[in-house]
C-alpha cells in the first residue's frame, strides 16, 4: 500500500512540466504568468519575441517574496535558469508598456524540474541496461534537436514577418509616390499658368 | 477491502490528474476578456489543451477553488482563419484537435459571463496546459494497452519524437518556400515600380515643358 501511494505521489503534487505558449501582447499591456514551485526545483525561463515593432519586450521574474530574480528591458531573446529558493508562487511578467502602437507576439518556455520519468517505477534499484541507457541518451539528444528546431522556427517566423511587412510597404509607398509625382507635376503647371494669366481677368475677379 | 480502496483511490487520483492541471501555469483575465494563444504546428499534429478556472471572491478577497456557474468558450482557428472548433465547456475542461493544414493555429478562450464589460469587475484565474505533438502521448497508457516491455516503450517514444522532427522539417521546407516567394515578389515589385516611376518622371517632365512652351507661345511671351 505504502509503495503504491509513493508511486502515485508525483501525481498529487509537484507536477514536473514544461509550459510553452505563444501569445499576443497588445501595446501598453502587461501580461503576467504564475506558477507554484517547490523548493529546490531547477527552473528555466526562455522567451523570444516573434513579431512586432523592434522585436523587444520587457521581462521580469519575481519569487514569492517579491524579490526580483531577473529583470531585463527591451530584450529580444533570453534564457534564464534558477533554482527555487523557497516554496510558493513565482511570477513572471512580459511588458509592452513602452510601445505606443505595436502589438508583439511573445513565445516563452517555462521548464520546471526535469521531465517526468517514462515509468512510475523509474526509481528502481537496478541500473538501466546498455540498450536502455542508449535509448535515454538518444532521447535527450532528440529533445535538444526539437528545442533547436523550435528556436529556428521562431527566428524564421520573425524573418518572414519582416519580409512580408517589407513587401506590403514597398507596394504601398511605390503607388503613393507615383500618385504624388503626378499630382505635384500637374499642380506645378497649373500654378505656373496662373502666374501668367491675364491681368484683366484677375481684376474683374477681385472686383466682383 | 484494501485492494478496492487502493484501486478506487488510484482511479480517482488519475481521473483528477487527467482532467485538471492542478499545478499548471496560471494567469488572470477579466471576466469578459478574451485571451488567445498561437500554436504554429505542422499538419496532422494533435494538440490537447486542459484548463481550470477559479473565480475571484470579492468578499473573501481570494480566489474560490472553482468558478461555479461560469463556463469557458473555446474557439480554435486554423491558419486560414476558419473556425475548426467552437464549443462551450464548463469551468474545467479539456479540448483536443488535430491540425489538417500546417501553420499558425489560434486558440482563444473567453468566459461565457453575461455581464457587460463595464460592470464585470470580476477576475478569473485560468490554469492552462497545452500539449502538442508527441507530448500528447500518454506512455504508461500505451504500454498497458499494447503490452510493451520497457525497451519497446522507450523505442516507441524515440520513434514518436523522430516523427515529430520529420514533420517539423517538412513544415520548415514549406515555410521556406513561402518566404522565398515573398522575397521574390518584393524584388519584382521594387524593380517594376522603380522603372515605372522613372518613366512617369520623364513623361511628366516632357509634358510639362511642352505644355508650358505652347502656353507661352500662345501668350506671345516667347
What would you say this structure looks like, in words?
Chain A: Pfam families: EMP24_GP25L. Chain A: InterPro entries: Emp24-like, GOLD_dom, GOLD_dom_sf. The complex is a heterodimer of chains A (208) and B (222). Chain A has 208 residues and is α+β, with helices and mostly antiparallel strands. Helix content of chain A is 41%, strand content 31%. Chain A has two domains: 18-114, Jelly Rolls (Sandwich); 130-192. Chain A has helices spanning 2-12, 130-195, 199-207; strands spanning 17-25, 30-37, 42-51, 57-62, 68-75, 77-83, 88-95, 104-112. The N and C termini of chain A lie far apart (109 Å). With 222 residues, chain B is of the alpha+beta class. The model of chain B has no long low-confidence stretch (mean pLDDT 84). The chains are: A alpha+beta (208), B alpha+beta (222). Chains A and B meet through helix 1, strand 1, strand 2 and helix 2 of A and helix 1, strand 1, strand 2, strand 9 and helix 2 of B.
| Total number of domains of chain A | 2
Q: Could you report the average pLDDT of chain B, rounded to the nearest whole number?
A: 84
Assembly type of the shown chains?
Answer: heterodimer
| String of helices and strands of chain A | HEEEEEEEEHH
Mean residue pLDDT of chain A: 83
At the first level of CATH, what is the class of the largest domain in chain A?
Mainly Beta
Sheet with the most strands, sense and barrel status of chain B: 5 strands, antiparallel
Write the layout of secondary structure elements.
The complex is a heterodimer of chains A (208) and B (222).
Chain A: H1 2-12, E1 17-25, E2 30-37, E3 42-51, E4 57-62, E5 68-75, E6 77-83, E7 88-95, E8 104-112, H2 130-195, H3 199-207
Antiparallel strand pairs in A: 1-8, 2-7, 3-6, 3-8, 4-5, 4-7
Chain B: H1 2-19, E1 25-30, E2 34-41, E3 46-57, E4 62-63, E5 72-77, E6 83-89, E7 92-98, E8 103-111, E9 123-132, H2 139-146, H3 150-218
Antiparallel strand pairs in B: 1-9, 2-8, 3-4, 3-7, 3-9, 5-6, 5-8
